UniProtKB/TrEMBL annotation:
Record has NAD as a keyword: no
Protein role: NodD regulates the expression of the nodABCFE genes which encode other nodulation proteins. NodD is also a negative regulator of its own expression. Binds flavonoids as inducers.
Signal peptide from the UniProt entry: none
Name of the protein described by the UniProt record: LysR family transcriptional regulator
Amino acid sequence: MGPRNLLEIEAFVAVAETGSVNRAAIRLNLTQPATTRRIQKFESAMGSTPLFDRTVKPAVLTAFGAHVLEHCRRVLAAVAELETCGNSRENISGVLKAGIAFGLEETLLSSPFDMLRRTFSRIKLDVTSDWSKELMEDVQTGSLDCAVGLLMPDQAGSLHLLQTPIGIERILVVTKAHQHNLGNERSYRLSDLSHQPWLLNPAGCGCRAALLSTFDRLELPIQIAAEVFGEDLQLSLLAQSGGLALAPQRQFENSPYREALEVLDVSDFDLCATISLMRHPVPGRFNTALNLMIEELQSAI
């Protein structure tokens, strides 16, 4: 196939994976009309059997389209691997757009990003932070090349992304040390904590969503005293005035307020999240850099 055909394959894969021509155009850095033309040419080259069912909105892949998609992914992966064979580290260049989940920025990523800057002098880093769910969608649409997220159990494996587990992060229930209104129990249940004031992240936080889901499943009320963005600020407020909050274990252990806080053993709420690097399943020009980044992250855990 000539280069023109490869561009049309990329457009088809982008539309199939993002679900719309608009999002595909963003991923490909093209205008919507240019993306549409490539899709039309690809569909014409594939013959009369439809690739998309356009009787529904948004259009979805037909069975034939899904079959073609898997073949196209293999073609693009093979081309990317071939290009990688001829690329030394010195030749890898461009803007690497990376995302990092809130709560992981300071505790995890300084060393891997420093390694990338030292090893790949022609790569410029463009790093942003967001909730893990939004980062996953940005990688899916191509707005980001990769993202390191804190994935809840129901998020692992969702969307068509290559997810490489880096480590497990336990989510702790934290309170002010010796908080008198909790008593001196060795272990608690959520029913013991339902009328205590909670300091939680705003909506969008996966840990908050998991906690509220558990309260709902147990048919228990929850008292959200304040929505406070960021675990560092939450832990500071807890140390001063008490209450309850959730915190990733690494962040709690590195907190300057740790001595003024304590972790509660809650028998019916045991939440562990997976730290994962997410990227597109088809290897791209930054594949070598991302593989090294994964090694650096795993050594840091």
